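Slide 14.
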Amino acid sequence: MQVRIIHKYDVATDICAFELARPDGSALPAFAAGAHIDVHVGDGLVRQYSLCNRPGDLRRYVIGVLREVHSRGGSIAMHALAEGSLLEISEPKNHFPLAEAATHSLLLAGGIGVTPILSMAGHLAGSGSSFEMHYCTRDPERAAFRERLTEARFAGRVHLYFDSAPADERVNLRALLAAPEAGKHLYVCGPAGFIGAVLDAAVAAGWDERNLHREYFAAVAQPEASGADFRVELASSGQVIDVKGSQTVIAALMAAGVDVPTSCEQGVCGTCLTRVLSGEPDHRDVYLTDDERAANDCFLPCCSRSKSPVLVLDL
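Slide 15: predicted structure.
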């Protein structure tokens, strides 16, 4: 659908907020905390940005975009846009929802990962739910939406930490995650290293994997492909397609005329998730949980490969 940038403003160093609305002013599709939208930023680029406004506010969508120094083009293109520009976006999707049965929600954000966490905090505060939010950045100037976090509804629930502060004022993950409970759920979003540190500390403290929820903004660096060729077989037709060592499964499928929807092409968004009927995938994504990987009944062909000579796909 088409939206217009009705407001663009700085919310931290290198981070801009964009308020998007329908050109005719009508209501936007509903969304839940943790949702994101696909934004078509031009030249075939599609990027995912989390919605950070209150879910009940359907007059607009608010996203925050960090200008990445080593951007693949998306964030630089977004920052170049001006108020009044038109954009094509998808309806909201949610791979990072709040658990309805949670008795307490522990929200952890690193850097630009604050965007879905902020929407979650707003929803939980509005519903009177038990929660706390912990937000870590390099320095105060890089903490996005700080003015929103000082609102009365967040008093005593939001805690900020800066790498530039003395060591005893930085976040202590071991202490923060030391008391897992059956009804307590943890949500973390941010750079891959931050997410890894949080999840490692939670597992070490005995948290139930089912109570750990994370969303990555970019894929973790993976080792280079082994160079081994393999084949994929389409269950519907029996067609067998060769995948070269230097080729992704998606590229091989496209070359054979098989269309699988993609978006991030980094194993982050889950758009290309495909069922595996036979064979053993070599998972290289950050979308699937450890349990989902162990099941070996699905994979993301944009980045993952095969450990077996043939993968039979539900295509």
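Speaker note: The domain at 104-216 is CATH 3.40.50.80 (Rossmann fold).
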